[in-house]
Amino acid sequence: MSNKESLETRVSRFLFKYRITPHSTTGIAPAEMLMSRKPRSRLDVLHPDVRQRVQDQQKKQKELHDQHAVDRQLRPGDLVYSREYGKQQKWCPGVTNTQTGPVSYTIQLEDDREVHRHQDQVIHRETPISAKR
Length: 133
What we know:
Helix content is 33%, strand content 21%. By secondary structure, it is of the alpha+beta class. The chain folds into two domains: 7-68, no CATH class; 78-124, SH3 type barrels (Roll), CATH 2.30.30.
């Protein structure tokens, strides 16, 4: 700010900046709470379409992700192979017991151990292991 500005102008600019800054507790700027809309600042004038560009990019990223995404919902009792670590046999047969989270399960292995696994560490199998020759 230049020294030529009047005190009134400097106070007005300070108050405007204060009023458009989101409050730490509410997360909403005082001016936005008062007027039920976000006031326009210099940054909004310089980059008016930033929000739209971000939304467009997010939509594109979601579309690209969804092209390769695989829905792997398992139910209790499904026959699966569970990834094992530190053993020679990398995949052990088992049965899903319960879903412990959005993408994690408890698996009852055929050697009577129960393990918790992420869905990326579980492969669905079609037939019981004893039916294979």
